[in-house]
Write a structure and sequence with these properties.
single chain; 129 residues; mainly alpha
């Protein structure tokens, strides 16, 4: 079930907290982000990361992971907050089948480009008449 989160968020931490709630809470998500830590400790760590009064912070890869996982459960609060704050239109999530088709198209184009580059290299290097 999609969790749309709060209608308005004060800051990025509020928006990410919405995603964390949709994914099962601090303990669950903290442990997924930091599997080397016991679940309770990881939950406390994540709670601290989202508290502006604390020193702990999520790294960019962890934020991207949260955005991706939030998308999977239909919670877009953090992505919408980022787009709103940066002056972009809110993105629309791609359906998995559309994403697969786009990846296929990109792959085919990359193979064509690789073939063209290989042909040019052979000509430039004198390996082909």
């Amino acid at each position: 079930m999609a969790d749309q989160g709060a209608l308005f968020t004060e800051d990025i931490n509020d928006a990410i907290r919405d995603v964390v709630r949709a994914l099962g809470g601090n303990k669950e998500v903290g442990h997924r982000l930091r599997p080397e830590m016991p679940a309770n400790e990881a939950g406390t760590w994540l709670k601290d990361c989202l508290n502006p009064a604390r020193r702990e912070r999520l790294n960019p890869e962890q934020v991207v992971w949260l955005l991706r996982e939030g998308r999977k459960v239909g919670c877009h609060s953090a992505m919408h907050f980022i787009a709103d704050e940066a002056g972009y239109l809110r993105p629309v999530p791609m359906e998995p089948k559309d994403e697969a088709a786009e990846l296929q198209r990109q792959y085919i184009e990359a193979v064509r480009l690789q073939k063209r580059l290989a042909d040019r290299m052979e000509r430039v290097m004198g390996m082909q008449p």
